[in-house]
Amino acid sequence: MMNNSKRQGGFFHLPNDNMVKTIGVATLLCLLCSIIVSGAATLLKPTQVANALLDKKNNILAVSGIDLSGKSIEQAFTQIEARVVDIATGEYTDAVDANTFDQRKASKDPAYRVDLSSEQDIAQIGGRSKYANVYLVKEGDAIQKIILPIKGYGLWSTLYGFIALEGDANTVSGITFYDHKETPGLGGEIENKKWQASWKGKKIADVSGMPSIQLIKGIVSPDTPKADYKIDGLAGATLTSNGVTNLVQFWMGKDGFGPYLSKLRTNVNQASVVTTANIKEQG
Ligand SMILES: Cc1cc2nc3c(=O)[nH]c(=O)nc-3n(C[C@H](O)[C@H](O)[C@H](O)COP(=O)(O)O)c2cc1C
Q1: For a tag on the chain, would you pick the N or C end, based on fewer CB atoms within 10 A?
Q2: Quick check: is 44 in a domain?
Q3: What is the spatial distance between Cα 261 and Cα 266, in angstroms, rounded to a whole number?
Q4: For residue 38, is it within any domain?
Q5: Ligand 1 cavity residues, CB under 6 Å
Q6: Angstrom distances, CA of residue 106 to CA of 114, 124, 150, 152
Q7: How much is the pLDDT for 7?
Q8: Distance in Å, CA 238 to ligand 1 centroid
Q9: Cβ(267)–Cβ(169) below 8 Å
Q10: Is 202 in the same domain as 242?
């Protein structure tokens, strides 16, 4: 039978229970599937990268306060100025292209990574990029909104988000978390729009410049001492809540955007002194 099949047409004419045919067909199938999967992955890569970028822009816009009605994400994003800040100095830098630089990737790149000591690393991120993206909404030269990337460890995962500050560089205008693996309904409530909205108007740093904003256990009421600096804790998720406090305090503090923010606050104060002087002169 086998000899007969071979004579009639080779491999595919072997009987189906033939060991060589079984292994051969399985191998061919595996090869075909791996070509299809790797081909699809390669073909879809540019689309995935473009979608990830669009999603990032969407998240930045979500906290920017920009009116999106009737506009595409790309159209609305033209109102945002992307800059890169040298975190240690708090100065803008042109060492990298602000439109393509991604500090999330850079934090893993030895060329940009700065390791943090355990004392510095309250957000439990191990290290950060030397440079960071910042996004500005401006009216003329005046900054209306400053949007800053934030990240830090919750209970199960690193939480990635953006915080938006008003032009005074101290009042929260919005916050969003777009990537995490906390439990839905518990730590996952960092995505809750109502909770996110409760951040609006809260203050970051006290008079000494120290980041004082924090999540408390329970609900903030008007009687809560220093209510301006307090945010409702997430019910049943104290560990994620602590993670959020730590990451916001890290990024608003001296090892995060602190130097940049204190420069902005000084500029705002100087501008208001000049404006007051002008008003007095005119009066
Ligand atoms: C399956 C499971 C998932 C949990 N997920 C979270 C979570 O995402 N974030 C969190 O802080 N706590 C989570 N917890 C609860 C924590 O273990 C811990 O009890 C809680 O943070 C304490 O918060 P509480 O003092 O507000 O109850 C989870 C617990 C279980 C059993």
Answers
A1: C
A2: yes
A3: 9
A4: yes
A5: 155-156, 182-183, 186-187, 236-240
A6: 10, 17, 14, 16
A7: 54
A8: 7
A9: no
A10: yes
Per-run averaged pLDDT (10 residues), the chain, 283 residues:
54 87 93 95 90 91 91 92 97 95 94 97 97 95 95 98 96 96 98 96 92 96 94 97 98 97 85 59 56
In a domain, 122, yes or no: yes
Does one domain contain both 43 and 91?
no
Nearest CA to ligand 1 atom 27: 236
133 & 216 share domain: yes
Residue 130: both structure tokens together: 């030397």
Domain count, the chain: 2
SS3 of 62-99: HHHCCCCCCCCHHHHHCCEEEEEEECCCCEECCCCCCC
Same domain, 107 and 26: no
Domain of residue 270 covers: 79-275
In a domain, 95, yes or no: yes
> Candidates 183, 189, 219, 245: which one to mutate for ligand 1, based on the most atoms within 8 Å of Cβ?
183
Residues 38 and 94 reside in one and the same domain: no
pTM, two decimal places: 0.84
Residue owning the nearest CA to atom 26 of ligand 1: 236
pLDDT of residue 2: 46
Q: How far, rounded to the nearest angstrom, does the alpha carbon of residue 240 sit from its chain's CA centroid?
A: 16
Are 198 and 88 members of one domain? yes
